[in-house]
What does this fold into?
Amino acid sequence: MKRNYILHPFLFVIYAVLAPLSANIGVVGVLAIRSLVTYILLAVTLSVILRLVLKDQQQSGLLLSGMIVYFLSFGHVDALVANYISWNGASLVLLIIYTLLLSLWVFFVLKKSVLLPTFTNYFNLVGIILIIFPLYNILTYSRHPRLAPIASEYKQYIWQESGVSDFHSSIAPDQRTKPDIYYIILDSYTSADVLRDLFGYDNSGFIQELEARGFYVAKESRSNYADTIFSVSSALNLSHVNTLPDYLRPNMEVTDRNLLLDSLSFQVKQNKASSFLAEQGYSFVNFATTYERINIQSADYFEKPPSISSFNPQEAFDLILLNTTMGKACFRLRGEENGPFQTLFDNHRARILYTLDNLDKFADQDGSYFTYVHIIAPHAPYVFGPNGEERKGADPFTLLEDVIGEEWSPDLYRDQVIFINKMILEVIDNILAKSDPKPIIILQADHGNRNYNVVEPSGELEMKLNYSILNAYLFPGYEEKSPVYPTITPVNSFRLMFNTYFGTRLKLLEDTS
It folds into this structure.
């Protein structure tokens, strides 16, 4: 008699782990082994128990597959339903349907139908097909051993092309005032006209408060790129970086986006602005952010909240897996405020508050400091109300920013803007009160706010959403006659500042987006 191998339960379990791993392989890597082993051990244990009880290999295997699909797919289906049905009871109805389907499957299998061998072979085939695709992505993923040297070559290439390979201050060291320099990036902070026209919020009060403190607000400014890592690497290196994909492709023979982002991260961590200022005697300060690719832990002072653990990709991956399972229903029943994902919202909020509360830490210290800080706000996730009240669960926890469907409310973004405005003005006032001489402050967004309740925006609207930004400069001594101009983009921020205060003669680049 032909033997049927019972592989499908274990193939389904392996797929449940490999599918999200393939999408996060660059961050998680081998750390997913713990989850994979745990899931397989649980499947083996249940398989042994069912065989002992039923004394039928095919019945136990098919029942186990039904249980695995029941438990491990619920979160996926629940998320899919939520995209179309906003009713709060939809999850409960789905849970009832899921339970009924499992009950019918149990009844069918226990009848010892003659179709059981056919289902076993079919499930084995489906399981093999399912794991092929994520397994291929995982096995072919590579950080490429030549990434670091090629990224370094590209750094030298863009410096050469943009004229910043070798430039010096023309002001004698004893004639430099060397004020502290703050480069504050507010992620996804859009321009006043976009806030007015698209979000129904008048931000003129905040703009006027900045101007009253001596800032020049470049009201026609745009970002150079629509992505954080591109914008930050470009601004800190005083260079356009849009040639990077073409530079990498022939050298590395890969088109993996992760390699592109890793290379841009290399440009951030070894940037031209901080190296030039180090030559001028500045100490470099960086505040930690959740987005690891733009953290510079090699800074002279790498500031991070002591009470919050560093981002743990293994724990984050475990939470991702848990949220795709029946565990999601358990969290719903308990109340999502008790779920493990709320810790991510709480930690994110605490990191932002720590940064804002400590940005003036070096303002009254001896020496000169260059402080670079990237604050993930008003960017999603939305963790603040307009007065700083805690908000969680209003949106999924993600640092990715996609176009939101019709249910998304612009109030979420607008409220976070209102709170950040209040906090930034307090931070600036604290810095000014403690600083002597008066500091240089560049306050700008890395890109616009892409979250908006239009699924397919027109080309003009998409340009506004992607590139319109807040961009403001405090240049002490130049408040009345600022060298800044209305259409300046971030790639020219440090060029203009170095020319103004250090006597460099850097040519301004084209302000392209």
Remarks:
- The longest helix spans residues 57-82.
- Residues 156 and 165 are 7 Å apart (CA to CA).
